[in-house]
Amino acid sequence: MIITRTPFRVSFAGGGSDLRDYYGKRPYGAVVSAAIRSYVYIAIHPYFYDKIRIKYSSTEDVTSVDEIKHPIVREALRRVAIHTGIEIASFADVPAGTGLGSSSSFTVGLLHALYAFKGMTVTKERLAEEACAIEIDILREPIGKQDQYAAAFGGINYIRFNPDESVNVAPVSLDYAGCDLLEKKLRLYYTGGQRSASSILSRQKIRLNQEENFKALDQMVALADALHLNFHRMNVASLGDHLNQGWELKQQLASGIGNDHVNGLMQRALQLGARGGKLLGAGETGFLLIYADDHNKIMAQLGCRSLPFHIDRAGSQVSTLFTSS
């Protein structure tokens, strides 16, 4: 049995500049993001029958790849050239559609598992590139590239997206004390609900034709560049302000990114001592990322389920268990 464990991600700054409609018309897009210790797991096993079985929120039992309804699974099997005799199951620590890049983590983890099933070792860069190709080029999802690279590489990274489609991943040089401080000051608060990022990002892409949106994204890239420099200088405390500024800019990109419920929770957190925050992912619902010196009062009074922030440093990992001879 092959099992992969692939992290979800938290984006600190620059989200939205990883869309081709932006970085293809600017010198570059840039984000600072972190892989976190919440994961999607993909398990693969040879299937006794000459068929394909897939278990996720639904179960599919088909005789050919073309019959598969799950688009990512279908295209990943085509890409790796596996045609039959395989069983695939997926599990996750948090629900999809909550702003943690789950679909891209799923794609990276699935590709990793399929290549391992074929006895192949592939680089983190290749996993990210092929996940982008499946989601963006083949399935035409209106998403960016940061999630795939964050999931594949792990750690905290400054990621640049270039007009020629190349991507540069630079680990952020925070020392142990800086990382420990981040893990103490950050926490994720669940606002409730799930949503499709595609609909929000589609509206954002339409509005990218408007110059004011390009200007907002230019400022978000500048925030990512500044945060990268501040982290290099071990100035972790600047993150709170960066989150606030980024959230204000992000809400200019499309309608529905923020709403009364989310903004009310954010304001309440600030009143309770938070120094900054943002809604993760495309918008509308999911997890708030809050930076605070003390989360006890916020956890007690905000009324949200919350998760600790812990950095995953390994990226997508693969194991082989109990292989029969």
Task: Record the SSE blueprint.
Elements: E1 2-13, H1 20-23, E2 29-46, E3 52-55, E4 59-62, H2 71-80, E5 86-92, H3 102-117, H4 124-138, H5 146-153, E6 156-161, E7 167-171, H6 176-185, E8 186-190, H7 197-207, H8 211-232, H9 239-250, H10 260-271, E9 274-279, E10 287-292, H11 296-302, E11 306-308, E12 317-320
Parallel strand pairs: 3-5
Antiparallel strand pairs: 1-2, 1-12, 2-5, 2-6, 3-4, 6-7, 8-10, 8-11, 9-10
Overall description:
This protein has 2 domains: 178 residues, 2-Layer Sandwich (Ribosomal Protein S5, domain 2), CATH 3.30.230; 133 residues, GHMP kinase, C-terminal domain (Alpha-Beta Plaits). Helices cover 39% and strands 25% of the residues. It has 11 helices and 12 strands. The strands form 2 sheets. Strands 1, 2, 3, 4, 5, 6, 7 and 12 form an 8-stranded mixed β-sheet that branches. Strand 3 and strand 4 form a beta hairpin. It starts with a strand and ends in a 5-residue tail after the last strand.
